[in-house]
Model the fold of this input.
Amino acid sequence: MSIANLGSFNEILKSNKSFTIASHVDPDGDSIGSVLSLTLALKKMGKCAEPVIIDKIPEKYKFLPGNKLISNQFSSRSDVLISLDSSDINRLGLNEDIRDYGNIIVNIDHHKNNALFGDLNIVDSSASSAGEIVYQLIKDKIKIDNDIAINIYTSIITDTGSARYSNTTPLCLRILADLVDIGVKPDYVSRQVFEKRTLSSIKLLKLALDTLELLENNKIAAMYITQEMLEVSKAMEEETEGIINYAREIDGVEVAVLFREKEKSVTKVGLRSNEWVDVSKIAEKFNGGGHLRAAGCIVELPINQARAVVLNAVSAALADNGGILCKE
Ligand SMILES: [Mn+2]
Done:
């Protein structure tokens, strides 16, 4: 249970007063949960802490304690800017230089392709989530209260699919147990995060399932979502989350791909794998990244062209691996 660079982190904490806690655009449970847990912990330590996510917070995460504190733009320069769950600076959605907003940059992440852009980098690709790293950083400094615990719990269960994915470790299960000891109600959090579906999201799911196609002997399952489908279903973009799992869960499928039309010539691509394909390597070919079993990229092409080039790369990855199990 040791964190590299804990000493330097403690030194930075001790000698600075104001902190900006930031995470990536297109926020998910881990980015929001890790930002809020660290923000609340720093406040408990008597620091000024401002959480920033330059994007809309999805409705379903608005139950998280402290979410109203999050601002959607950077304001003043802090002593320290802490980036969470973001493999590179661009993921923060900043147009300006990151140095405009922090004298010291601390980069806390669990993506294995992290660009190590911080003055201090606390990057552990074996961690289930950024929230898990936050837990280890703060556990000996403050008494973790229920509000902080719910945020870390949400980080871990969203990034591990409720402790089902291959990034579920004994450590993250122990942390979940600690958080339940503190007072987190697993059924309450699960209901907020996984079981509250809007009618519009079900309508969107129906449209997306209609686009399902299977390739390479049913080893690849692909779906797409166009802007028109969002309009017809009246779904919001955030409601596309989780749809890719319907493709991934088909028996025999190794790689699932979901294409989302962001603009006429910008396509967002989500990639998931089940057993042996490293989808982060496929995403990296298109300047994206992620993890072994979950990755993504943005392709500056209309959705049909994006489908063609990415599916080619997925087929090539399947052929490359040749079915040899790639160990984690
Ligand atoms: Mn994460």
About this structure: The chain has two domains: 6-194, 199-321.
